Amino acid sequence: YDYEDVIRMSIWFYEAQRSGELPADNRIPFRGNSALDDEGHEEEDLSGGWYDAGDYVKFNLPMASATTLLLWGMERYKDSYVATGQLDKMYDSIRWPLDYFLKCWIPEKNYYYYQVGDPVADHAYWGRAEDMNMDRPAFKLTTSSPGSDVAGETAASLAAGSIVFKTEDSAYSEELLTAARGLYTFAKTYQGKYPLYNFYVSSGYRDELCLAAIWLYKATGESSYLNDAKSFVSAGVPWALSWDSKDAACQLLLFEETRDSIYQTNVENFMDGWVSGSSVPYTTCGLAFRDGWGSLRYSANAAFLGLLAAEDGIKSTVYREWAIGQVNYMLGDNKLDKSYVIGYSNNFPTNPHHASSSCPSPPATCDWSTYNSQQPNAFVLYGALVGGPDINDNYVDDRKKYEYTEVTCDYNAGFQSAVAGEI
């Protein structure tokens, strides 16, 4: 499989998700400037960031989770981005959410904007991002309405960003680190789950506080952050590594920084449940199948973690071979000989649940009749990893079947980093 091509395409996908004013070198033919008026309650500029999926809400929890996973992959597998000629593109790509997070954090007021867009109104619209005219309210955390999960995850991404940009842009790296410190202090001081009840509901926040603390320790070497990470980590076996659950990542990062065998044991307990099938069932063709909605992203995240653990000397051969097998399934090693990465190979999904790419070029109309048609999307959404197959290895290429065909920033992140780890 051509992993270099997959990396290149995945970066394109994130460019297709951009909100705000696009650069002059925008490579996505169906995308232009959009949501330029996104603003906070006191008219703070909140333009930028990534649209979450096939819709146009900016949900900071999954956006930050994706950003952290991508940055972790950049930190560990920088050589892969150099080898593929994609390092500069990746720096540009990952600045997009980081710049947005800097806008969302208002340190002098202890405000953090964690969402822009009303999901109900947004999901009643099928059309181009550039044509939106519905209200796009902003939602914020305060000292009396905290959200240690989304603030903690964002602090983790900013701290990881400060490491990745240290040699590329030292001033930007310092700006990211200052924001990470402040946002982590806010998240730790005012603890609670963020107030979102219908979309991306958080199960807890100690894992995000752990993740923020360990990345801040990696960025600063200050022992107080390491002690915080140790206090926040959970010893249980997580259900998955996902936008909601970061404990598996924390365990591995703590092992890397301490070499304490207790963290190695916890990493092994998590990975062995995936590799052996004892906690995660398998499809006939060999996909570790955690859940029916977006099945591939969970396996991709576990594959990324397995590659990292293997590099760290934990069951190196077993975990690396398993991870490669999972990624190769996604690229076509399955009974359908189907690539689940749009645009890769000659058999890939053509009807992703993604409004922008479904719309024909203006002045043609784009609305719910477009959504309901069986016609392939008007534009190829290169690089997007779709949700994936069901437990029987079957796939329904119908944009109305979002469990199969949805694409999100979250789905591609661990996947792209895993592919980088295989080059």
From TrEMBL:
Keywords: Carbohydrate metabolism, Cellulose degradation, Glycosidase, Hydrolase, Polysaccharide degradation. The keyword Hydrolase applies. PANTHER family: ENDO-1,4-BETA-GLUCANASE. Residues 3-418 form the Glycoside hydrolase family domain. InterPro entries: 6-hairpin_glycosidase_sf, 6hp_glycosidase-like_sf, Glyco_hydro_9, Glyco_hydro_9_Asp/Glu_AS. This is Endoglucanase. Gene3D superfamilies: 1.50.10.10.
